[in-house]
Amino acid sequence: MIPLRIACIGKHGQTAQALAGVAAGYPSIELHQAGREAADLTDAAALEAFIHQTQAHVVLNAGAYNLVDKAENDEAKAFAVNAEGPRTLARLCNRYGVHFIHMSTDCVFDGAGTEPHTEDESPRPLSAYGRSKLAGELAVAEEYPEAVTARVCWVFSEFAESFVSKAIDWARARPVLQIVSDQIGPPTYAPDIAIALLRLARAKVESVRDLSGLLHLASPDAMSRSDMAGAIMAESQRQGGPFARIEPVTTAAFNAPAKRPLNARLSNARANEALGLNWTPFAAALERSVAGVLNRTAS
Ligand SMILES: NC(=O)c1ccc[n+]([C@@H]2O[C@H](COP(=O)([O-])OP(=O)(O)OC[C@H]3O[C@@H](n4cnc5c(N)ncnc54)[C@H](OP(=O)(O)O)[C@@H]3O)[C@@H](O)[C@H]2O)c1
């Protein structure tokens, strides 16, 4: 198979770590990753140097300002990282003839309705984070129409920090956790996203498909946040880890600083058709994720 050189930004994040694990199984893939220290999204010279050093066929941006609540009071920083960073990358990739895959979020939608959001639907973000990510999508499309923006949602895994590691941490400290029950989304296993991104990268390089624009990478199984938290607690207890009782609350009662879409479902029909994807069943993915988190955090 033709070698595929990928340069990934956001090395220490969940998707990037999952990508490293999956790519290690493919000798034809040469994965270069840089964290904020080497490739800060607000440092155009560092991004350009990273692209040159790696001689990448594909640049993947898995870095982001992801502090959804904090962004409400830090919108300028969120825009610098989530909008201007991707704009710079798209411009550089276009200039140097390198394929570009960017990542975005369900938070570009207002979450109306109960059907999965499609790529054709008009976005209407409810939060500063969502606005910054939408601005990033638009900047990428403007600078480099051939680029792909992959929207993902409720990503979880054994890697970095996710809802799984957070819920287990909270359960170490509190016997009862209040979790919202009216936000419904598709918990999506980071290694499944990594496989999809690698297929997408290969499809771009080999021009087997004419893929550009938006692509939703999300599991077909949707559930509430409180049901997801309940499943995490049950699996943690089953594996000898901490347990807390889940108390479902409404989003209105929880009153977080940033508004989140109540319907976070994303339709994966376009991605499945283009890339032939399989999604790990939630129970199997959760078992691996909880095992990894408990193993990592065992004292
Ligand atoms: N996690 C989710 O549930 C979720 C949901 C929807 C969309 N997404 C999107 O999916 C993509 C990947 O998310 P993820 O969950 O894998 O990310 P993550 O685990 O939150 O990691 C994000 C990474 O971005 C890095 N970063 C922050 N500021 C940066 C900067 N100025 N320059 C370069 N890197 C910077 C962070 O570096 P440090 O390690 O140095 O802090 C971190 O390693 C992002 O675009 C995110 O918006 C994620």
Secondary structure elements and their pairing?
Elements: E1 4-9, H1 14-23, E2 29-34, H2 44-54, E3 58-61, H3 75-96, E4 99-105, H4 128-143, E5 148-152, E6 155-156, H5 163-173, E7 176-180, E8 184-185, E9 188-189, H6 190-206, E10 213-216, E11 223-224, H7 225-238, E12 245-249, H8 251-254, H9 269-275, H10 282-297
Parallel strand pairs: 1-2, 1-3, 3-4, 4-5, 5-10, 6-9, 7-12
Antiparallel strand pairs: 8-11
The structure holds NADP nicotinamide-adenine-dinucleotide phosphate.
Description:
By secondary structure, the protein is α/β, with parallel strands linked by helices. It contains 10 helices and 12 strands. It has helices spanning 14-23, 44-54, 75-96, 128-143, 163-173, 190-206, 225-238, 251-254, 269-275, 282-297, and strands at residues 4-9, 29-34, 58-61, 99-105, 148-152, 155-156, 176-180, 184-185, 188-189, 213-216, 223-224, 245-249. The strands form 4 sheets. A 6-stranded parallel beta sheet has the order 2-1-3-4-5-10, with helices on both faces. It has a two-stranded parallel ribbon with strand order 6-9. Strands 7-12 form a two-stranded parallel ribbon. Strand 4 (99-105), helix 4 and strand 5 (148-152) form a beta-alpha-beta unit. It is globular. The mean pLDDT is 96. NADP nicotinamide-adenine-dinucleotide phosphate (NAP) binds next to helix 1 and strand 4.
